[in-house]
Amino acid sequence: MSMTIYLLCLFFLTSLIGFLIYKVFYKKRHLYNDRFGMIMAMSCSGIISLNIAMLFQFIFNNHLFLIMIVTVVLGGSVGIVFGSLVKYQSLLAGFLHGIVGSLTGNMLGIVVEDPSICSLPAPYFSMIEQNILIFSAFGTLLVMITISIVYYSLRV
Q1: Domain range summary for the chain, segments of one domain joined by +
Q2: 3-state secondary structure of 117
């Protein structure tokens, strides 16, 4: 039960970071050009959807196919939201990277929960909960670092 609360807190933290950076980019959307908008849409949607999909796989591990569909739709939506800040080219790039990020997050979450899929050695089976904690914390840290770098590049 405490693992689920931890994972839900990381999910809400990732969602809050995504929402806050979207508000910042929305207010400053007239200050940057198409190239920065494309890079912003690709990097933000890719990393946010990757982490959200991985956390969803950790939280709802019994419904693989349903969670994969939900996270792909959610990742594509995140990409469309970030890509719509500039032009249609960035919308398409954000959509694509959102889908790719969510598929990657799903695959990573499934492999962390079941190491036999990739024929990993037997000691990994005893460390599944530890790996879930490490990967979820690392994914959230990666979201924070990526969003910070994109925000810093807006200021430069």
Answers
A1: 2-155
A2: helix
DSSP secondary structure letter of residue 33: -
Write out the two tokens for 156: 């430069």
pLDDT exceeds 80 at position 131:
yes
d(CA 106, CA 91): 22
Maximal CA-CA distance, the chain = 54
Task: Read off the pLDDT band of 156 (50, 70, 90).
Answer: low
Q: How far is Cα 18 from Cα 89, in angstroms, rounded to an integer?
A: 21
Distance from C-alpha of 76 to C-alpha of 80, rounded to nearest angstrom: 6
**Cα–Cα distances in angstroms (integers) from residue 50 to residues 35, 41, 68, 126, in the given order:** 23, 14, 12, 25
pLDDT average, residue stretch 100-109: 94
